[in-house]
Amino acid sequence: MENPVEFVQWLRSVAPYIHAFRGKTFVVAFPGELVAAGALPVLAHDLSLLHALGIKVVVVYGSRPQVAEQLALRNVEGRFHNGIRVTDTAAMECAKEAAGELRLDIEAAFSQGLPNTPMSNAAIRVISGNFVTARPLGVIDGVDLELTGVTRKVDAETIHSILAAGGVILLSPLGFSPTGEAFNLTMEDVAVSAAVALHADKLIFITETEMLRDLAGTEIRELSSHMAEAVLQANFLSPESAFYLRHCVKACNSGVERSHIVPFAMDGSAMLELFTHDGVGTMISHENLESLRPATIEDVGGIIKLIEPLEADGTLVKRGRELIEREINYFSVIEHDGVIFGCAALYPFPEEKMAEMACLTVNPEVQAQGDGERILKHMENRARASGITRLFVLTTRTAHWFIKRGFVPATVDALPKDRQRMYNYQRKSQVLVKTL
Fold first, then answer.
1. How far apart are the first and last CA of the chain?
2. Where are the domains of the chain?
3. Where are any strands of DSSP class E within 1-68?
4. Is 145 left (phi over 0), alpha (psi -120 to 50) or beta?
5. Least confident of 32-36, 73-77, 124-128, 361-365
6. Whole-model pTM?
7. Of residues 16 and 301, which shows the higher confidence score?
8. CA distances to 185, 288, 334, 380 from 299, in Å
9. What DSSP character marks residue 289?
10. pLDDT tens-digit series, residues 280-297
11. In 10 A of CB 294, how many CB atoms?
12. I need a surface site. Which of 74, 273, 283, 432 has the fewest CB within 10 A?
């Protein structure tokens, strides 16, 4: 170890993620291209580490290149309709062959246990089975897709019991009907269906595609599901990237909190995505942009109504309507059905690359729904986009709430010079600072 101090600092920096992820359910899906590229052993190491950290892991694998290879060996030409494989009897046999071989390879990768390797003392039990019920896609545009299917149901109850007992679930791109037929499914469909059925906290696609980029070539690090839909409509992504993104949006809109698209070309990409702030892939989250947005002049009345009770009891500094109207560009609001349920303001101090978050308020009737957390994350993202590196708050009542979310106590001297001159020593507000 060349730099022990750096190692300790790194370990401390990932501790919050370890605490946050323990006991959570992650569905991790990867294509057959990853196996063909020889990246399976490293991914098994990383997933075994997630398992060791107390994360419940469901693995879903794809087999497209392996099916194509089996078809070529049998001199059978693959047939497609609108990018969907037409699975006849011969192709189904190839799909079964490919899925079976991959399952054995994956189980072997998780069975490694040599000393001085990441898998030493892992002892992971990988469980696979008939957890996925499927139905045929049927006839589309006059073309019978035969044994190509779509997921109908995932046996979430059985999978949860296996995960609770410490096992890792392995799902193949095959599903079965109540009549005993097998159907060829897409890995993406199985992964999304499993994540939704299990109420997974994350769906992670480890992909053969490159990092998603916008039309200007800038890397896309984070998208709301609504922004992702706009990206898909713009139609500038490759078909493969668009396919993954479409499934991420479907997962988020169906209740999965976070979906990720992570290229496997970088060694340890899954770990870097999960345990570093910026990650190395694209994260898609379900955030209704119509409900969490910058405030407009029409929102002034709703903001006043929201903050008046807190001004009356001294929690917030009193702001007149005129002041809020002048400063409305600093505010963001949460709106549901035309009613303002939460707000906050961000006042930048560009010279010090600092900003004050003020007036963070959520309607008491909905405070248990996590809107305060959503507003905080929104304001942090807004600050980062403006080049702000440190966020501070002044509070008399809610210091513990902010401390639990990464803020640390500081003195008045830590504030920007202009803000120090405006500090109200009679209120004796606590100063809390967070590095972004």
1. 29
2. 4-285, 291-435
3. 25-30, 56-61
4. alpha
5. 361-365
6. 0.70
7. 301
8. 48, 17, 10, 21
9. T
10. 999 998 765 457 889 999
11. 14
12. 74
State how far the Cα of 392 lies from the Cα of 345, in Å rounded to an integer. Answer: 12
- What 3-state class would DSSP assign to 287? coil
Cα 317 to its chain centre, rounded Å, is 36
Two structure tokens written together for 367: 């405070």
Rounded-to-integer distance, Cα 419 and Cα 414, Å = 10
Reported as a single tens digit per residue, the pLDDT across 340-353 is 889 999 999 999 99
Please give the C-alpha separations between residue 151 and each of 159, 227, 417, in angstroms, as whole numbers: 16, 27, 60
Q: Which of 46-60, 106-120, 146-160, 402-416 has the lowest mean pLDDT?
A: 106-120
Decide if domain 291-435 falls under CATH 3.20.20.450: no
Helix (H) or strand (E) holding 265, with range, is: none
Which residues, listed in sequence order, are joined to residue 148 by a DSSP beta bridge?
Answer: 184
User: For 134, what's the count of Cα atoms within 13 Å in the CB-facing half-sphere?
Assistant: 28
Q: Give residue for tokens 């035969």.
A: 146
Overall size of the chain counted in residues: 436
Structure tokens, 242: 């668009």
DSSP secondary structure, 34-69, as one string: HHHTT-HHHHHHHHHHHHHTT-EEEEEE--HHHHHH
Domain 4-285 has CATH 3.40.1160.10: yes
